[in-house]
Amino acid sequence: MAVVIVVGAQWGDEGKGKVVDLLTERARYVVRWAGGANAGHTLVVDGKKYVTRLIPSGVLRSGVTCVLGEAMVVDPTVLVDEVRAFRAQGFLARHEDLVVAARAHLTLPYHRELDRLRDERPDNTIGTTRKGIGPTYESKAARIGLRVGDLLHPDRFRLQLARQIEALLPQLTALGGAAPDATEIAAHYLALGQELRPYIADASKLVHEAITRGDNVMFEGAQGVLLDIDHGTYPYVTSSSATAGGACAGLGIGPTAIDTVLGIAKGYATRVGGGPFPTELKDATGDLLRKRGNEFGSVTGRPRRCGWLDLPALRLAIRTSGIEGLALTKLDVLSGLERVRICVGYRVGGQTLEEMPLDIDDLAAAEPIYEDLDGWPAPGSADTPPSATKAAARFVARVGELVGRPVWATSWGAGRAETILTLDPFASADAAV
Questions:
Q1: Are residues 172 and 229 located together in one domain of the fold?
Q2: Do the domain assignments include residue 102?
Q3: Residue 237 and residue 235: Cα distance in Å, rounded?
Q4: Which helix (H) or strand (E) holds 432?
Q5: C-beta of residue 55 within 8 angstroms of C-beta of residue 82
Q6: Which residues on adjacent β-strands are paired with residue 309?
Q7: Is 13 a catalytic residue?
Q8: Strands 98-101 and 200-201
Q9: What pLDDT was estimated at residue 433?
Q10: In a domain, 346, yes or no
Q11: Residues spanned by the domain of 227
């Protein structure tokens, strides 16, 4: 058996869903530990596109249990819609195919409204998904939060709902928002709770028991390490822990249970919202990457900022998450370029840095140091993947050399068959990178 953590090693949108979907052919449980409906994963199977927002990427695999962990924030309206949609397509056929942690916190309508009102302020520079994620985590930290299990206790839910609205109302009205209708919200959400009742459980205990039995378990990260609330490019970050260590804290699983940590990175870099982005391309090449890579948010539709692969940022992600091996995705997007660049370091204040600084002013002033490599042609046929070309193979090898980690998978397209694995992390605990 093996217990594997998969994290995004950039600012999110690295193609984690596709890689997790592929690896879950051998997994029994796929578990998310943080984030909420702001983290869309796109899966393409047999030419059909699926987008998950809350449910882990193992949803398309028969016999796999998908778990929404304790440190997630769950919007029941989104989750119920997602469950209905997947069930209508023949997935989640059994109640045991999905488990929702009773201790996960709830995103309510006024969390989304507060998020929207803040994001619309002229002085706002963060750029959120407006899904209520930050305000929900604020309620959790303030100890006024409602949790998924509260949906099964109507009187307790109504009492805590009234307390939460009272606490948040001054912020809402100060920003021009209206007072929430507690009666209407309670009726709607308690009805959703009854629909979710079969899935609500002690997720931490269930995952612990699966590990104890020797089942293959995969922890699926949301967003990317550079968006971690503590170790990312603060304040341009998400509101939860996106590092591998967050899986243990968020699920109540001891770190001794983890066998390996695998990181996912694109062959280039993207980010959404505000914040410094040293390798950003504000030119025709950036536009080309965005168009070829379909770099638009799967949840929001927002265009992503695009740039060359940033190894100082990747080194930071490797260090803070203990990443032992890398998957490089979307290498097909780079096909056909005459030259491909890799940022190998920064110049900041007369110094050369090999790892991304987290002082926001230093990062904004960072001048990327590039290494240029030959590009590679687009594949001539399905029998000749770009990985067969020397230039593409050199790019992959060079990335591994520069960050000191093996590249265990490469992806050259959206479908399952377009990913080349050189390692099965579930072959055995000893086979982990």
A1: no
A2: no
A3: 5
A4: none
A5: yes
A6: 342
A7: yes
A8: parallel
A9: 41
A10: yes
A11: 3-93+202-431
Active site residue 105: no
User: Are 272 and 415 found together in one domain?
Assistant: yes
Dihedral of CA 296/341/368/311: which sign?
positive
Same domain, 285 and 360: yes
Domain boundary pick from 181, 197, 213: 197
Residue 382: CATH number of its domain: 3.40.440.10
If asked whether residues 140 and 223 sit together in one domain, one would say: no
* Residue 374 and residue 239 share a domain: yes
Contact 7, 238 (CB under 8 A): no
What is the count of structural domains for the chain? 2
Q: What's the rounded Cα separation, in Å, for the pair 134 and 235?
A: 12
Do residue 33 and residue 156 come from a single domain? no
In a domain? residue 99: no
Which CATH number belongs to the domain containing residue 142 in this structure? Answer: 1.10.300.10
Q: Which residue in the list 13, 21, 259, 310 is annotated as catalytic?
A: 13
Residue 226 lies in a domain: yes
Which one is catalytic: 21, 41, 105, 231?
A: 41
The sign of the CA dihedral 304, 309, 313, 314 is positive
Residues 66 and 156 placed together within one structural domain of the fold: no
319 and 406: one domain?
yes
- Count Cβ atoms below 10 Å from residue 267 Cβ, excluding itself: 25
Instruction: Please name every residue paired with 280 in a beta bridge, in sequence order, or none if there are none.
Output: 307
Last residue of a domain, one of 197, 217, 233: 197
Per-residue pLDDT of the chain (433 residues; tens, 9 = 90+): 699 999 999 999 898 888 888 888 889 999 999 999 987 777 877 778 888 899 998 899 999 999 999 999 999 999 999 999 999 999 998 889 999 999 999 999 999 999 999 988 888 778 788 899 999 999 999 999 999 999 999 999 999 999 999 999 999 999 999 999 999 999 999 999 999 999 999 999 999 999 999 999 999 998 899 999 999 999 999 999 999 999 999 999 999 999 999 999 999 999 988 899 999 999 999 999 999 998 987 666 789 999 999 999 999 999 999 999 999 999 999 998 999 999 999 999 999 999 999 899 999 999 999 999 999 887 654 555 555 588 999 999 999 999 999 999 998 887 777 888 887 788 744 444 4
User: Residue 373: how many CB atoms within 10 A of its CB?
Assistant: 18
Which residues have a Cβ under 8 Å from the Cβ of 211 and sit 6 or more positions away? Answer: 1, 3, 217, 253, 257
Q: What's the pLDDT at 14?
A: 93
First to last CA, the chain: 14
- Whole-number Å distance between alpha carbons of 325 and 261: 7
Angle between helices 133-141 and 109-119 (to 10 degrees): 120
> Do residues 32 and 67 touch, judged by C-beta distance below 8 A?
yes
